[in-house]
Design goal:
The structure holds three protein chains of three kinds.
Chain A lengths: L4 H26 L7 H22 L20 H25 L5 H27 L11 H24 L5 H26 L7 H5 L6 E5 L7 H6 L5 H28 L5 H22 L15
Helix pairs in contact in A: 1-2, 1-4, 1-5, 1-10, 2-3, 2-5, 3-4, 4-5, 5-6, 5-10, 6-9, 9-10
Chain B lengths: L2 E6 L8 H11 L8 E2 L7 E2 L4 E7 L6 E7 L8 H4 L6 E3 L6 E3 L9 H5 L5 E4 L4 E4 L4 H4 L12 H5 L5 E5 L6 H9 L15 E3 L17 H4 L11
Parallel strand pairs in B: 1-11
Antiparallel strand pairs in B: 1-10, 2-3, 4-5, 6-7, 8-9
Chain C lengths: L12 E7 L8 E7 L2 E7 L12 H4 L1 H5 L9 E3 L10 E3 L2 H18 L4 E5 L5 H11 L4 E2 L2 H4 L1 H8 L10 E3 L6 E5 L7 H13 L3 E5 L12 E3 L6 H14 L5 H7 L5 E3 L19 E4 L4 E4 L12 E3 L5 E4 H9 L6 H8 L3 H17 L2 E3 L3 E2 L5 E2 L2 E3 L2 E5 L1 H4 L4 H15 L8 E3 L17 H5 L46 H9 L8 E5 L11 H9 L13 E6 L11 E4 L8 E3 L11 E7 L12 H11 L17 H7 L29 H7 L3 E5 L12 H9 L16 H10 L11 H10 L10 H4 L8 E6 L24 E4 H6 L7 E6 L2 E10 L6 E5 L16 H4 L37 E6 L27 E2 L10
Parallel strand pairs in C: 6-7, 6-23, 9-10, 9-21, 10-11, 23-24, 24-25, 29-33, 30-32
Antiparallel strand pairs in C: 1-2, 2-3, 4-5, 4-25, 8-22, 12-16, 13-14, 15-16, 17-20, 18-19, 26-27, 27-28, 29-34, 30-33, 31-32, 31-34
Helix pairs in contact in C: 4-18, 6-14, 8-11, 8-12, 8-14, 11-12, 22-23
The chains are: A mainly alpha, B alpha+beta, C alpha/beta.
The complex binds ligand MGD (2 copies), iron/sulfur cluster (5 copies) and molybdenum atom.
Amino acid sequence: MQPTFSVIFFTVSSGAGFGLFALLVLADFLKPAGGLGAGQSLVAGALALLLVAGGLVSSLFHLANPRNAWRAFGRFRTSWLSREGVFAMAFFPPALLYTALAGLAPERWVPVRHGVGLLAALLAWLTLFSSGMIYACLKTVRQWHTPLTPVNYLALGHFSGAMLLLPVAQSGGSQADFYRYLALGLLVVAAAFKAASYYRIAGSGASLTLNAATGLIRGQVRLLDAGHTHGTFLTREFGFLLARRHAVWLRAAVFVLGFALPLALLLRTISAPAGAGAAIAGLSTLLGIVAERWLFFAEARHVVNLYHGAQRG
Amino acid sequence: MKLGLVIDLDVCVGCHACAVACKQWNASGITGPLADYNPYGAEPSGVWFNRVRHYEVGEYPTSKTVNFPMSCMHCEDAACVTVCPTGASYKRAEDGIVLVDQDKCMGCNYCAWACPYGARELDRASGTMKKCTLCVDRIYDPALAPEDRQPACVLTCPAHARIFGDFDDPNSAVSNAVRTRGGYALMPELGYSPTNRYLPPRETRAIPTEGLGKPGLKERLKGLVNKVVRR
Amino acid sequence: MNAPIQFENHARQEVKYTTCYMCACRCGIRVTLEEGKVRFIQGNRNHPTNQGVLCAKGSAGIMKQYSPARLKKPLMRKPGAERGSGEFVEVEWDEALVMLTSRLGRIRETDPSRLAFFTGRDQMQALTGLWAQQFGTPNWAAHGGFCSVNMAAAGLYSIGFSFWEFGAPDWDHAKYFILWGVAEDHSSNPIKIGLEKLKRRGGKFVTVNPVRTGYSAIADEWVPIRPGTDGLLALSIAHVLLSRELFDWEFLVRYTNAPWLVVQTPGEPGDGLFLRDEAGNPLVWDMEKESLVSGMQAETSPALFGEFAAPDGRPVRTVMSLVAERYLDERYAPASVAEECGVAAGTIERLALEMAQVAFRETVEIETTWTDCYGRKHDRFVGRPVAMYAMRGIAAHSNGFHACRAIHLIQMLLGALDGPGNFRARAPYPKPVPPHQLPENDLSVIRAPSTPLLRPPLGFPTRPEDLVIDAEGNPLRIDKAFSWESPLASHGLMHMVITNAANHDPYALDTLILFMANMAWNSSMNTGSIQDMLRQKDPDEPGEYKIPFLVVVDSYHSETVNFADLVLPDTTYLERHDCISLLDRPISEPDAAADAIRYPVVEPDRDVRPWQEVLVELASRLKFPAFTNADGTRKFRDYQDFVVNYERSPGVGFLAGWRGKNGDKFLKGEPNPKQWEAYIENQSFFAYHWPEHMKYMRFANKDYLETAAEAGFIGRPEPIVMQLYSEPLQKFRLAGQGLYDGPMPKKLTDRERLARYFDPLPIWYAPLEQRRVDKAEYPFYALTQRPMMMYHSWDSQNAWLRQIVSQNRLYMNRAQAERLGLREGDWVWVESHNGRVRCQLGTMEGCQEDTVWTWNAIGKQAGAWGLNPDASEATRGFLLNHLISELLPEKDGERRITNSDPVTGQAAWFDLRVKITKAGPGETGAWPEFTTLRRLPGDDAERPEVLRWDVRGNSEW
Ligand SMILES: Nc1nc2c(c(=O)[nH]1)N[C@H]1C(S)=C(S)[C@@H](COP(=O)(O)OP(=O)(O)OC[C@H]3O[C@@H](n4cnc5c(=O)[nH]c(N)nc54)[C@H](O)[C@@H]3O)O[C@H]1N2
Ligand SMILES: Nc1nc2c(c(=O)[nH]1)N[C@H]1C(S)=C(S)[C@@H](COP(=O)(O)OP(=O)(O)OC[C@H]3O[C@@H](n4cnc5c(=O)[nH]c(N)nc54)[C@H](O)[C@@H]3O)O[C@H]1N2
Ligand code: SF4
Ligand code: SF4
Ligand code: SF4
Ligand code: SF4
Ligand code: SF4
Ligand SMILES: [Mo]
């Protein structure tokens, strides 16, 4: 699929936002090294909310008929897109309340804060999971149709969240080692799952062929004529084909920018906390994840391409 | 009822009449108009509900050419309906026809992603998704003569390669065709249970040629005795 | 919940029945209108031709009716502007007609043959032919000459009907069907309907075609023949049938000239002609009476084989003996021809035996009593259910006439003609072989000012005396039809008109009228030089063109319109009265004689007039006798009045239905003033269903022959004897050999061609152009095919159809392409002896290895057809025509000869050979490029970025 910027920005930013918020609430419970200061919680919470909101707004851009967008919550029962919308909307009130309480009245209504915090974190996970499931539930795109897809969304969400939480944690002068180890841990998990999904895609897997798509079995089937000289909605929407050599190069970028460089920088900040190591790592992570998300869409091969002559799905 | 189409690949000559008749009927039909982009310009394209593709099976000189019309299969397990967030995409309980309610669609393309058969196309002018309606505005129209209550593509097909009917009725033309000709669904393993069926090309009938005539006329020509034929 | 489904508001709609003209198959259409605009066009279920179906073109009529390419008003070339510059001024109809009438009047009063009037696929030859005859010019034809005259002539000189328009396979009974060289043809819907019936009933469908697309895609067996060798394959099949005595004795003896005796006196006048009695009857040897008797006489038992002596002692042999002797020769054995045809010997043998098996052992019987022309009663028709059909794959070669006769030879051997399950005639055929109609060739009549010709401009010569030449043997027609170069050119040579007129050879024209023919583009060979010829100035007449005045009658902005001095805009097929007459190319089916009309179902929103009306108007103003009363007043008010009242012979007019005072007579009857209304009430068509006993063996069916004579289809109710051996051809051969007591050609080239190609029995020879071109340098055969969804150049203007195909590729066999290092999508140079083009390559399996092909007429000149100049038809589409020359490659000492069939003058489009090389880097886009056509004055039509057509009006128009 031709990856569009609005889709990439939406998924990366809201992913990071939900991840950051969930970790913020966790940190509030576990209080590692005394937990974050009110100011830090406020900044982290607001940043998370901002990222989530930014992501949701951008999702409107690739609607061809936005005036019906309000209906997008209607099919909660069957549609992951509806569910994502509902959970995302439900997330805002408790998340706002939590951030306000944590940032402005850290000592008061602590059980209330913890309650809404947990609720918001739960909704964040559900939203992230839904975002992944939107793609994973499609039997038409082999590369997406796997449990690894939602897992990747969750893992990358939390990893990018952790990378945003780290500079916030460092800023208050309080002990940030927990957050460094947290980011490291999530980095390794995210990298592992990403590697697993790339491995799965690279494996031949039971991909459909043009013979199967047409049910013609007496010999190899080839496209003679697609029935239209120029493109159609189908070829424009699904016909984008990423050359294998680009895919390899891009995957390398994902791992270098997304994982290797941040790993090195994080390890350095552990030994020498001063300096902008964390910020650079955060930036590198974001770039890596944008590349990952671009590749996620670019490598998707919709089964309809078989009918336009692709030999394998 | 489970309404749908049977396409006979043995006789479809790939003339595109079904695709154009569909475009003609539906341009002023219930989800019309169907946008045509750059119609008189460099690269014309537009919204079609039915597209005919042409394939070849095997190698020269024994290759077989197969013409392959495709429109919505009106699947029983239509993921295009379940994924749609707005409820614009729906499947009618009474006859299984899958439609898009143009007043509800927000044009997110998600249903097109969920359709393995490429049966949905976004109309950029109206911002809504459009698809084969199984000519629901013809097949139930009491003002039309019974024999005309057929989809436009079925009526127009010069090779009578398209049959419309109820797959739930074992005696319907579609059921009979599927039974007698081994009609098959496309990519059943995807689990969509598409209703439309395709009839594979028929086997060629062998013609005996033993013991025909009396060889060696050339040699016998000289002394040939004419057969007596009275005029 | 979801909105309920809205049905059509039928109260606002109206249904009218008329005839489609998105191609020349002329299907019956049911047009639903809403507030005068076309809502939906579908097939008319009751119409004999299409029985309710429509093709893609027919279903896209709306986008032709509202096309931006429609002409709006008469145009004159702007004074001072060069022809071809496309600079016009709008003129009123009255002014245009006054000017045209005076010019035509001047021509008619001096030398009528200075007017040439040639038409395309207009289906109106009965009217245009009559008009030309009444004007007095022999220079008229439709475009059959470059279309498929080989099929028409071969059929009408052999079996009395033809593959071209006058016959159809019996789809209800056929069990074996061979299709030779057909991609779509005129009766395209009937063939599709028929193929499904054939396959459903278990019949086998074999296609002989270098390309496996369209009909051939669904064939049970594909024979990928090498182009131009079908005649050889057919004669090899005849060899197999003959060698095993697999032929129908009764059919050959009773219904063909197989038993007729042929004089064998080589080197002497009269050699090869039939032995005839004093009354002129051909003689046969009666085995029981052991004497010569008339071949037309009943109660005889003629010998099929044998050598005998004429009363004067000259040796004579039966036609069948000559047939057997020739085709049993090893030259025609499958093994000998396999390599040339590219078809395995075993396959040829098997195909012949399969035909014989089905013909002789799987007969079809229709139990109906009938009487043959010899008075014998039969209780059934016995059909040899092997049906065949053939068209331009056979026709469009310089050996096509003989190839088609070779196919008819197989049908005659099998007795598979006009019987149940085989190839049957369509009324008004069969007719005598050849039809009794000779072309006007009396110089004094032709030169006589203001005098109609006594005979029609076209006909069927039977001997050199019938040619249209002067005393010195020079052609009298501008296209040299019926000259020594093209003796049996029964449809004329439209593809030579512009070339000959520009060269003033045989003479100069004053005015050329082109109606419904795109001669400056896809209808001409050598398109580029044809455009140059139209621009060519006359050195002897300063300021004049070699072709002084060009009138183009078209409905749309075609490439040819751009060259006109006067453009007369016609209506669309939904806006005019028209009739599809039995006097022209009938829409009859084998089971029913039929004709049809069109009438306006939509009001034209432009200042346009039907050409039919203009012809009647011009005829009246020029006082043609047939259009003028004795007192000099005009006889016909308009075209409708003409169709109702004109009688070609007493009781026989343009329309056969609802004749007679009160409309109760059919086929023949006095004019019925309410005939148009009767047609409109009956869904615009009339069908006369033959009774069961008149449906078959009509060449010898007593009751049918009597009805046909009564209806004026044939002169007298006499049997129509099929001609295996063609005496007319032999007469021309004798003339070539200098052995004919009558006109003979003076030029050596003509004598050689007559002697070689006018063999009375079918022969095969390598196509002419291919013998003058180095096969090694030009290894590929190059062909075109009809795309099912477009009609010639007419449909690139169609916004819907254009989305299916708006660029053509040159297709090549995939393995062959790989051998040449070429791949799908490469830009390549394609070169012939006559020119070169650049285009994109396509690869496929279903294409014979030495053949390349492309879709016909997709390439367009930029700016034509209402398209933007950057349309892919102009930037990437191409015409193969640029590579094809209308003249054969030059041979020293020989005048330039037409690149056509030497017998009929049929244009040999598919004899082309080319070489193909990959284009260099950066060499992309179609070449040659032509200047971009200017928009015509008055062309205010919208070309929207997004078209949202909807009959209820919010179309972006
Ligand atoms: N849709 C549509 N229908 C049309 C027309 C159109 O433009 N569009 N044009 C109309 C007109 S004017 C005509 S004349 C008819 C023509 O109708 P067709 O007779 O179908 O003519 P072509 O399309 O020229 O196709 C010629 C066929 O013969 C094959 N062929 C070429 N050379 C040889 C050969 O040497 N041997 C054999 N066996 N096959 C060969 C080609 O592959 C092709 O399939 O169609 C009419 N109908
Ligand atoms: N390379 C190659 N060239 C070929 C052929 C081939 O097989 N290969 N086939 C040849 C054959 S068989 C034929 S028949 C010719 C094409 O046969 P033609 O009849 O010459 O068809 P066109 O060239 O499209 O020209 C028809 C013209 O009529 C105009 N027209 C359409 N409708 C109407 C109407 O209602 N009224 C009037 N007045 N005009 C109208 C169209 O706009 C167009 O300009 O092509 C020939 N050219
Ligand atoms: S109209 Fe009939 S024959 Fe033509 S492409 Fe469609 S299904 Fe095939
Ligand atoms: S073919 Fe596609 S659009 Fe039609 S019901 Fe099935 S999934 Fe939905
Ligand atoms: S494009 Fe329309 S019909 Fe399709 S999923 Fe989105 S809202 Fe539903
Ligand atoms: S059933 Fe109707 S809407 Fe569907 S493809 Fe056929 S004509 Fe089009
Ligand atoms: S074959 Fe098609 S274009 Fe030709 S008359 Fe019939 S419906 Fe019209
Ligand atoms: Mo033609």
